[in-house]
Amino acid sequence: MANAFFSDLLATISERGRTLLRRGDSADTRRDADGLIDLCDALLSGRGEASGIAIAREVLDIYRELDAAGRRAFFDGLVRDFGPDRERLSKAIEKWRAAPSDEDASSLHFASEPRRQELIRRLNRAPGGTGDLVNMRADLLGMMNGHSDLAALDRDVSHLLSSWFNRGFLVLRRIDWSTPANILEKIIRYEAVHEISDWDDLRRRIDPVDRRCYAFFHPAMVDEPLIFVEVALTETIPGAIAPLLAVDRQYLPIERARTAVFYSISNTQRGLGGISFGSFLIKQVVEELRRETPKLDTFVTLSPVPGFMPWLKQDKDLPLSDEDREVLKRLDDPKWFESPETTAQLRAVIEPLAAHYFLKARTPKGKLIDSVARFHLGNGARLERINWLGDLSPKGVRESAGVMVNYLYRLDDIEKNHEAYANDGEVVASSAVKKLLKGEGRRLLDMRLS
Predict the structure, then answer these.
(1) Nearest alpha-carbon partner for 59 in 123, 120, 133
(2) Is 197 exposed, middle or buried (0-12, 13-18, 19+ CB in 10 A)?
(3) Terminal CA-to-CA distance of the chain, rounded, Å?
């Protein structure tokens, strides 16, 4: 209610300011990148509150009308014309060098701030400005590939967004069948892991007694989930996604639930890329579930491995024999998993490779290759289990040869696991995963198949 009142008040102020501006020369503003830069200069000139909000809204509206070339020209203008005040910065540097003090350090800090940061702050005052700036950064990220000249602008925008989307401002809300339809529609659209086919599919994921969905929202974007997680309450740790999503599955009575399975986490706003909410979301959802269902004692993911197949195809240093490479060629058949003989042969090769992928493989910069692994291990989870044929959907077969993994969040070990990964790059994994490495894993598998 308070948010709605404040938004309406801002909109009224903005509209009145725009009415005043139309009586002046604003109506003749060029609606291209150069005209937009002129408006940004006007916004920074220090006019009154109403006119400032109106100009900010005008800037954002004109920006939305620009094509890709116009938006790129606008970003170039922000880089070129809205950096630090060099004369002021030079004076602050000279003063600091002459007689360093805390006051001079503060002056140097503020003098070094680019003008575009204050511009972005003022744009954020416009009604709906926060969401527009998030969308603007999405455009910026899309143009940055190979264009390092835009990096400084992105640092400024992401710096401010990181402050505005601080965990302290986020609101956790449960998504269920009583949630407004416009938000439910976005859950369907934004689901990035396991596609939601229709409204009935959505209802099966959020309405039954053994299913949960939670999302983070921001007060300035009340109808936009920023990130959401889908949870299945089960008796044991699952190894495949299909039974969790089955149309005709039997619902589990809540008193029998012992395991909470995080089987889908979706970020929804590309413009907030690099601003992490996921670790906060999982930890807060764990607390919510523990309060609601005290008998839950296991918190685990059922995670995809989207980078596994690309790694198999591109990495020339895989620990494989010539015979193994011949076996892997069977993955070219889109229905390979329908043959028991083929699946057995592939399993003997792929499970040890998957263990190597998670435990040994690194990027040239020394990071784990898999982004999902980096996320969960960085949050303090343990790589618990590699699941053969865990996802036989077309997407799962295409991206990971059907492999899925469980990351276990053992509350007493989260801090220790996080420190091991963050400080030493150590992948904390169960003994079952470690035994799958080439050699030992192959011997165990041969014993199972014999």
Answers:
(1) 123
(2) exposed
(3) 66
CA neighbours closer than 13 Å in the CB half-sphere of residue 39: 31
Q: Which of 3.40.50.1000, 3.40.630.150, 3.40.120.10, 3.30.460.80 is the CATH number of 307-448? A: 3.40.630.150
What is d(CA 327, CA 51) in angstroms, rounded to the nearest whole number?
Answer: 69
Task: Provide the residue count of the chain.
Answer: 450
Percent of the chain with pLDDT over 70: 89
CB 383 within 8 Å of CB 377 = yes
Tokens of 402: 């059907």
Per-block average pLDDT, block size 10, for the chain (450 residues)? 50 52 53 92 80 93 96 96 83 79 75 90 95 97 86 95 93 97 97 96 97 97 96 98 96 97 95 87 94 96 95 82 92 94 96 94 90 93 97 96 97 91 92 81 46
- Give the residue carrying structure tokens 């400005």: 129
* CATH topology classification for 1-165: Butyryl-CoA Dehydrogenase, subunit A; domain 3 (1.20.140)
Fold held by 167-303: Aminopeptidase (3.40.630)
pTM of the predicted protein model: 0.86
Query: Domain limits of the chain?
Result: 1-165, 167-303, 307-448
Write out the catalytic residue numbers.
303, 376
Question: Residue 299 pairs with which residues in a beta bridge?
Answer: 260
Mean pLDDT of the chain: 88
3-state secondary structure 184-228: HHHHHHHCCCCCCCCHHHHHHHHCCCCEEEEEEEECCECCCCCEE
